[in-house]
Amino acid sequence: MGRNNPKNIKAHNDKLHKAQDKEKAKKAARAEQLKAIVKKFNENKNEK
Fold first, then answer.
1. How far apart are CA 18 and CA 20, in angstroms?
2. CA 48 to CA 18: how far, in whole Å?
3. Measuring CA to CA, which residue among 41, 5, 36 is closest to residue 28?
4. pTM greater than 0.70 (yes/no)
5. What is the spatial distance between Cα 42 and Cα 22, in angstroms, rounded to a whole number?
6. Helix/strand/coil (H, E, C) string of the chain?
7. CA 18 to CA 30: how far, in whole Å?
8. Where does this protein have compositionally biased stretches of type Basic and acidic residues (predicted)?
9. What one-character DSSP code corresponds to residue 48?
10. pLDDT tens across 27-40, in order?
């Protein structure tokens, strides 16, 4: 059995892309949370 058959390549790529999508989702979630925190901080700063 060869390593580089289409089935194995597809399985590897699917696994890789799933991991990359997970990282991208984490990064987006962190950015959203940071935006919310900054917005809240700025609102509190303006009230004083």
1. 5
2. 46
3. 36
4. no
5. 30
6. CCCCCHHHHHHHHHHHHHHHHHHHHHHHHHHHHHHHHHHHHHHHHHHC
7. 19
8. 11-30
9. -
10. 999 999 999 999 99
Number of H helices, E strands in the chain: 1, 0
Most distant pair of Cα atoms in the chain: their distance = 71
Asked whether the predicted pLDDT for residue 1 surpasses 60, the reply is no
Tokens of 11: 């399985």
At 27 the pLDDT is 97
What's the average model confidence in pLDDT over 5-28?
A: 95
CA 22, distance to chain mean position in Å, is 5
